[in-house]
Amino acid sequence: MNSIVSYPARGIGGSSRYRGNCAPQVVADLIDQFHWSELSDYMCGSGTTEDVCNQKGILSHCYDLNRGFDLMSMEIPERNEAIFWHPPYGDMVQYSDNMYRSSDIIEKYGIDPAKSDISRIHDWDEFVRAMNFCCMKQFTSLERGGRMAILMGDMKRKGKLYSMLCDIAKPGTIENIVIKAQHNCMSSGKTYSNRSFIPIVHEYILILRKDSGLYYPVAVTKKCVRDIRDVASASWRDVVADVMDASGRPMALGEIYSRIAGHVRCESNGHWKEKVRQTLQAYPIFKAEKRGVWALQTTVA
Fold first, then answer.
1. pLDDT in tens, 26-38
2. How far apart, in whole angstroms, are the C-alpha atoms of residue 277 and residue 250?
């Protein structure tokens, strides 16, 4: 297995009609790469992992909401050597009442899958919290030295990328990130009027290893809002430019002062007003409209 994999022809296993179903070769190559003797999958969908394990002659433990198992609320039965996880990509595909009927699961297993189906979560931050809960729960079931391989992808909405790889919790040792080429994507035959739009034609396989049985690092994404006026590494040019860009119009020098006053970089520079004037005069992106009034010249429409 290399750091980039591609499977143009779909192998045998699972059901290609089950949306989001992965290529069986992904699971087969992971088994061969790490010499796994058994493998668990707690969101097995149409059963690709189970089919591949049967072909390889190894033991599998496969569960899903469509089989009456709720990863969000139920205990994981196994102490695992290896886990393969292919979570839903946000709410790109809703599984309950789409790939299967919730009423059938309620009748057969006595649980309502719609209540714990994370593919029904529309808010990205809420989805990330649920995804990370599932990730940590599975990782903690690994034995020391065990591995967890997570197949995931990114999605775009209204010009913004929502990245599972960036936002997912990463417990233990990050052993590898494998790029998997996608084939026969729904976006492949589309023509986009927005020339800056870059279609997504790849997925990731994140491989995590549990090196310690008690303590292990966990990398999590923390989102915060920073004010450039309080960022020590920002230049005076960029601070002044962003202040003027935010106003969207020419600004009097006194107003520029007032928008910068009181922030961290002023506290560390007793001559910050002189610095602002020097900055306005030094860079061609600033233009004097008239005495004491400055405009920002930008190239982005």
1. 999 999 999 999 9
2. 15
Dihedrals φ, ψ of 47, to 5°?
Answer: 100, 25
Extract the tokens encoding 79. Answer: 């102490």
Phi/psi region, residue 167 (left: phi>0; alpha: psi -120 to 50; beta: rest), is: alpha
Handedness of CA 184, 186, 189, 193 (dihedral sign): negative
CA nearest 36: which of 133, 171, 137, 143?
143
Q: Which domains does the chain have, with CATH numbers?
A: 4-219 (3.40.50), 228-296 (1.10.10.10)
**Biggest alpha carbon–alpha carbon distance for the chain:** 82
Angle between helices 253-260 and 236-247 (to 10 degrees): 110
What are the start-end ranges of the E strands in 76-223?
80-85, 142-152, 154-157, 160-163, 170-171, 173-181, 202-209, 218-219
Give the pLDDT confidence score for residue 12 in this predicted structure: 86
Q: What pTM does this model have?
A: 0.87
3-state secondary structure of 63: coil
State pLDDT tens for residues 165-199. 999 999 999 999 999 998 875 555 566 566 777 88
Quote the CA–CA distance of 104 and 166 in Å, as a whole number: 36
Sheet of 251-252, strand order: 251-252, 293-296, 286-290
The full length of the chain comes to 301
End-to-end Cα, the chain, rounded Å:
45
Rg (CA), the chain: 26
